[in-house]
Amino acid sequence: MTVNRGLALLLTVAAAGALVSAAAPPGTLTSVRLKAISARVNAKGASLVIEASEPVAYTTSRPDPLTVLLDFRNVAAADVANSVTADVKSPIAYVTVEAAESLGAPASRVRISLTQPVAHHVRSDRNTVVVDFDRPSAKAAPYALPPNSRPSAVGSPQSGAPDAMRALEGAAAADPIAALGLDASAGGPSAASAAIVSAPPLPRPAVVPTANAAFLQLAATSPQTAPEQVSNGGSRGRQFTGHPISLDFQGADLRAVLRTFAEISGLNIVIDPAVQGTVDVALRDVPWDQALDIILRANKLGYSVDGTIVRIAPNAVLKSEEDERKALLESQNDASQLGTLQRQLSYAKGEEVATLLKSANVLSKRGQANVDQRTNTLIVRDVPSQFPEITTLIDGIDRAQPQVEIEARIVQTNKTYARALGVQWGFGGRVDPSLGNTTNLAFPNNGSLTGRVGGTQGPATGSTTGQPTAVNLGVAGPNSGVGLALGSVNGAFNLDVALTALESSGNGRLLSTPRVTTQNNVAAEMTQGVQIPIQTVANNTVTVSFKDAALTLKVTPQITSANTVIMLISVENATPDFSRQVNNIPPINTQRANTQVLVSDGQTTVIGGIYVSNSTIASDKTPGLGNVPLLKWLFRRDRVDESNTELLIFITPRIIKS
């Protein structure tokens, strides 16, 4: 019981001391002080140990890769013992203690300068704050420190770290107020805690942030069209580049927190008197500009940028000021005398530019734009303050457009093969007493048997004529043939046989190359061919119309910034076929391609292709006899026809360099 009462009494006294320290008036340092600062090297890197007389709240930031700052609010450091010395195994170059300000109150700042931009981690345990640094790389060259950049350390050095400091290694991090056994919110705003834990390891080569860089990043979120830019703090789609920090504010004054960002970022910040309130945030390892953006949006604040100064004010105030500025500008325009801007256009059409000026709201409500079509001169009547913007727009439009040469190649190939084998034969036989052969009958006493399919075969021997055809399966237009004629002595029976054969093959290639040159975004067309007249009779009136049978190329090019060309293409190859005329009007064979392609300058691409293959096998024969083995070739005709047609359309754009 005695031990428990002693601990309770000790905690009560410590809590009372913390509350008294927190309630101390701003501008005065309390009895809390920093006692000693020491460093040690271990296998994982190095650690800096800061010992205070009692648990303290602190803030930490990293303005550049080689500097880590720890601010202790309302903590004195007049007699701190600084025993830190440089060590080749440690990334810590030196440590100094300076006077500073944190959240509007005096503070002691511990500045840690590094030889390499290694990652750091901050942890606290009761009266000590430990900063752990990763082991420096042996291959990386240390950053050179500027001459005379190291100030003298505050406090007297000690020979080594106390045993109590060594006992902190491996201890779990604890909140300083929680170490007293108190609720941080019990003290109200006067007992609010603020702790900024260290930044995480830097994943990329660090760039030392400066006031100008931070200003440019902040100003980049606002349009640059007016002297004063206003933003509502929206962060959707925005890239944050500030160095990472961690924030833990509970009940902290909003104006004091915003002043802290001025120290972290190096910005020139002016806070509007209407900004009031408190901040309760807990952020870990976020870019400082994102943290500022979140706090502004949470409190319905925005900012305006004027030169190198960032002014923070409520959104309603900024909106009211912007509305007043616009109203003032409109009233000034209404009171201004109208001026005349005259511009003779070289490449753009005046009517199109005048329409664009009106639709783009570049003209004021009193402005007018007219065109002298004879000289293509644009005449603008408006207040002089609008002339710079009008001139800028005209300069961007009235420029020479590059030209594009488009070449199309239409390649059509034909391959044919034909083979045919046929036979023709005829015979004639007679029974007649004059020939010495008879039937010995009264009827029939004579007769004849001949072919009846077609004409006669070749002449037989003697004076007899050719024999009538019995099997007419010859090849039309043969290029090879052989005939055989047989006959009896008295001419009573004759036989003629003709065997014909044909084999042909052919290869054809047709190349058409239309070419046209046009300006960027301007349609062009080229046509070469014939027109076929077509007569139409209606109500005793003859009307003649013409149908194109021609090679046509239509294209609209668009040049991109990547030196490529987007083309809307229509290619048609139409040829008349006079071999198949109907009423003296030939049909039209057409190949057409309509497409849109993206092609690099000077490159060739295939925009279309058609491949047609025809194969025909035909057989003519005498029924029944045409299937008899060995003898069927005497009663049939076989034909094989093959044709292959291929059509390819190539396109090549070339940007003409002026």
Shape: elongated
How many helices does DSSP assign?
8
Number of strands: 31
Mean pLDDT: 77
Question: Low-confidence spans: pLDDT under 50, at least 5 residues?
Answer: 1-27, 143-234, 460-464
**How much strand content do the residues show?**
35-45%
Secondary-structure-based class equals alpha+beta
Ends distance? 99 Å
CA-based gyration radius? 51 Å
Proportion of helical residues: 10-25%
Largest sheet: 8 strands, antiparallel
Describe this structure in words.
The protein is 15% helix and 45% strand. The chain is an alpha+beta fold. Strands 20, 21, 22, 23, 24, 25, 30 and 31 form an 8-stranded antiparallel beta sheet that branches. Strands 5-1-2-9-8 form a 5-stranded mixed beta sheet, with no helix packed on it. The chain is elongated and about 165 Å long. Residues 1-27, 143-234 and 460-464 have low confidence and may be disordered.
Features:
658 residues, alpha+beta, eight-stranded antiparallel beta sheet, 31 strands, disordered N terminus
How does the SSE layout of this entry go?
Elements: H1 2-22, E1 34-42, E2 45-52, E3 58-64, E4 67-73, E5 81-82, E6 92-102, E7 105-114, E8 120-125, E9 128-134, H2 163-166, E10 194-195, H3 211-219, E11 229-231, E12 244-253, H4 254-265, E13 268-271, E14 278-287, H5 288-298, E15 301-306, E16 309-314, H6 315-335, E17 339-344, H7 350-359, E18 368-372, E19 377-382, H8 387-397, E20 403-431, E21 447-450, E22 469-473, E23 480-487, E24 493-512, E25 515-519, E26 524-538, E27 541-559, E28 564-576, E29 588-600, E30 605-621, E31 636-656
